[in-house]
Amino acid sequence: MSASTHPHFDDRGALEWHASWADAWAAARAARKPIFVEVGREL
Known about the structure:
The protein is mainly α and 43 residues long. The protein has a domain at 13-37. The protein has one helix and no strands. The N and C termini lie far apart (22 Å).
């Protein structure tokens, strides 16, 4: 899956959101940026 908007609300493109750890890791390494992990549960 590629980068996208936040899956639950419109963050107006503030961050690149990834649903796959591998995609997020690759993007972070390429940009030399840290990863923010959001964990929650869907009801």
